[in-house]
Amino acid sequence: MDEDVLILPGLMCDAAMFVETLKQVPRSHVIDDHYGGADRIDQMAAHVLAAAPDRFALIGHSMGARVALEIVAREPDRVTRLMLADTGVHGVRPGEMENRYALRDLGRREGFDRLVDAWLPPMVGDAARGDPVLMDALRAMCRRAGQKVFEAQTEALLHRPETGLVLQALTCPVSVVVGAEDRWSPPAQHREIAAGIAGAQFHVLDGAGHMAPAEKPDEFNALVRGWRALPTKATRPAP
């Protein structure tokens, strides 16, 4: 537990997603600059690695988990443990490009606030949608990102690299976490991810959607603490 924990946010997200994690988890740090405006996953990974310590634990949320896997692919010996939260490892699916560009074009045509109001509500669970304080904080976070960052990160996601070989090669302790009400990347998808990683732990957070770290922070952070307590020398053999 003596390593720093780097937290990689997802699409349009920043440190506001992890306010309670920063309070509750010692030596945790969020990459809080939208990856320098990068529009490719490999560029985002390089951006993180340039400022990272020699060895570190890594939490990736949503798009950030794809960045985390690229980091592991590049520098596996520097990552002591890995948590993947509310994410996917599949390639671009039929219709995904059209759906992402429809949101992009909505923002261009009607303004970025309209994009945020269309995108955000389906990303959270039922309880969060009824919490005006939380929703206002999440909207403000997305608005800080703005149209330019949204478009850059959309391009990164549409050009994301393959992850299959990275998952098979993982030997550090891995935890896979998802909100039970995550409609964008549902629990079944995460169960498959965990099943493809030797020895990975799998956790579902009840009452949370895609923004689980902000929706259920105490429960999420309890999982983070348990993950940090796992031995860094894995008992499972490398493939």
Question: What would the keywords be for this entry?
Answer:
239 residues; 48% helix; disordered C terminus; globular; alpha/beta; 6 strands; 6-stranded parallel beta sheet; single chain; 11 helices
Number of strands: 6
What is the C-alpha radius of gyration, as a whole number of Å?
17 Å
Low-confidence stretches: 234-239
Give the helix level as a range of percent. Answer: 40-55%
Distance N to C terminus: 26 Å
Arrangement of strands in the largest sheet = 2-1-3-4-5-6
The chain-level mean pLDDT equals 95
Secondary structural class: alpha/beta
How are helices and strands ordered from N to C?
EHEHEHEHHHHHEHEHH
- Oligomer status: single chain
A few lines on this structure:
The chain has 239 residues and is an alpha/beta fold.
What can you tell me about this protein's structure?
The chain has 239 residues and is of the alpha/beta class. It is built from eleven helices and six strands. It has a six-stranded parallel sheet with strand order 2-1-3-4-5-6, sandwiched between helices. Strand 1, helix 1 and strand 2 form a beta-alpha-beta unit.
